[in-house]
Amino acid sequence: MKQKYKPRGSLLAALDIGSAKTACFIGRVVDDEGNFEVVGVGHQASQGVKNGTIVDLREAEAAIRHTVHTAENMAADVMKGYPLREVIVNLPGVHARSTGDAAEVQIMGQEVTDNDVRRALVKAQEKVIGADQELIHTIPVGYKIDGHNGIREPRGMFGQKMQVDIHVVTGDMNALRNLATCIERSHLDITAFCLSPYAAGLASLVEDEMDLGCTVIDIGGGVTSVAVFHGGVLIYSDAIPVGGMHVTSDIAKGLTTSVSDAERLKVLYGSAMASGSDESELIDVPRLGEEDHNEPNHVPRSLLIGIIQPRAEEIFEMVRARLSDSGLGQMLGRRVVLTGGASQIPGLRDLGQHVLDKQVRLGRPIRLGGLPDAVSGPGFATTAGLLTYISERAHEMPADIMEQVEPGTMWERTKLWLHENW
Ligand SMILES: Nc1ncnc2c1ncn2[C@@H]1O[C@H](COP(=O)(O)OP(=O)(O)OP(=O)(O)O)[C@@H](O)[C@H]1O
Ligand SMILES: [Mg+2]
Question: 20 CB under 6 A from ligand 1?
Answer without folding.
Answer: yes
